[in-house]
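Ribosomal protein L11 methyltransferase structure dump, as promised
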Amino acid sequence: MSWVTLIIETDAAHAEVLSDALLEQGALSVDIHDAAADTQDEQMLFGEPGEPSGEIWQNAEVSALFDQDADIVAILRNVTQIIQSDQPLGYRIERIEEQDWVRLTQSQFDPIQISARLWIVPTWHQSPDPAAINLILDPGLAFGTGSHPTTQLCLGWLDQNLQPGDKIMDYGCGSGILAIAALKLGARFVTGIDIDPQAIKASQENALRNQCDPEKFHFATAHQATERSMQPEEQTDVVVANILANPLIILAPLLMQIARKHGHIVLSGILKEQAEEVKAVYQQWFDMRIAREQEGWVLLTGIKR
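structure tokens r here:
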């Protein structure tokens, strides 16, 4: 069996009504995404932590999945009438063949060596080095398989710089990979924060899978987090945030408060051409530097004054 994906170009004013119209025409699922995703023109949407942004990309694409026998010409005609468009819709069609989706997904992730002593091992693989520090990971629906350069940059920093007994805040914890690595490397306590409840669920499960002491970690969504984490007695030795440049700029005052005096901040998710802008914002409170680059991504680190 195969399916057909109809991808229509649109804008913020028409994306939702177009999505509803495609569902009315029998779409099995509909997705709205940035037409410029993974390019320099990508538009980041974010609001207050834990709250939806309420925005849609100015240049969007609506992808609708249909059975292989769907009459795409008729669907396009009907949708054009429903949304009352005077212009022909820009679109493309992609065919999706039946596959073993579980095996296909797993095949994309092999064990990854971060350093001589640190490995990331998906749950469906055996560890290449049982004597190493092995992070046994199932990302689930959360970001953070360890394959992305931004994650590897953060892991490398933790491996080289984390001190036994350090207290860590992982803001934007995703699968929990950085928080778990910190615990395995000797952190005293780790707090993981994310706006996505699925990420919190994945982090908790992965921490237990790695036999981390439940007394040494706490994962919570951003709206569950309280100002307690920003009080001086609760400040952390290391704040690590692997997000994106624009959210990092917005979050700078918050992350500054979380870090103790002389504590470290570790920032990733930053393209090389964005580094100076992010660095300038954090330079208000930290002595910042570009610590490392990998495949066009930059790791920024700093020590709080």
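Residues 122 and 137 are 5 Å apart (CA to CA).
lmk if u need the other ones
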